[in-house]
Specification:
two-stranded antiparallel sheet; 8 helices; DUF6398; 177 residues; 2 domains; DUF6398 domain-containing protein; mainly alpha
């Protein structure tokens, strides 16, 4: 596991000096997501931890790593409306804090700090579940000849160019896949 995590950190270009902190945080978020959420949440939490690890100076090198892990899970949950009972999986904020072993206000404050540092908004495609991206019509809205259009209806080669330019997150086939 440690070797896999080290190779992941290297592939993500996380500086070596923050590997111990990022590794400990990822181990915490992976274990939590495995027990209470799912693999997609674990991947998104890893991505967020990697992003914070690359930030210079990395905020993860200071403070309680357990609280950073809680803030990361809270942030990914916030982007994906984890507290909404209509979502699957679903956890209320107070449940999330209790399961992570931190105070709710501490976790929420750390989540707000992370969102501010990385300019994370609702439906942020960097940390949104695939289902949330697909459901959000604004993710796919592009302007063609002055008219708004759903990019998923455009030819695949046009979608590929939109992905290359960072306008849409991925190519969406017309059969809904």
């Amino acid at each position: 596991m440690a070797e896999q995590l080290d190779s992941w950190l290297k592939a993500q270009r996380v500086p070596k000096d923050v590997w111990p902190a990022v590794s400990q945080i990822i181990e915490t978020t992976d274990a939590f997501c495995d027990a209470h959420l799912d693999a997609e949440y674990a991947d998104l939490c890893r991505a967020l931890a990697g992003t914070l690890g690359r930030k210079r100076p990395s905020p993860l090198s200071r403070g309680d790593r357990r609280i950073w892990a809680a803030g990361i899970v809270h942030t990914v949950g916030w982007v994906n409306f984890l507290a909404d009972p209509a979502q699957k999986p679903h956890l209320r904020t107070e449940q999330l804090a209790e399961l992570l072993g931190v105070k709710q206000t501490t976790m929420s404050n750390k989540g707000a700090l992370i969102r501010g540092l990385l300019h994370i908004d609702r439906f942020d495609t960097r940390f949104a579940r695939k289902e949330m991206i697909e459901k959000n019509p604004f993710t796919w809205l592009v302007e063609v000849d002055g008219l708004p259009m759903d990019a998923r209806l455009l030819p695949e080669q046009v979608q590929q160019e939109l992905v290359r330019c960072g306008i849409i997150p991925h190519v969406s086939r017309r059969d809904g896949q």
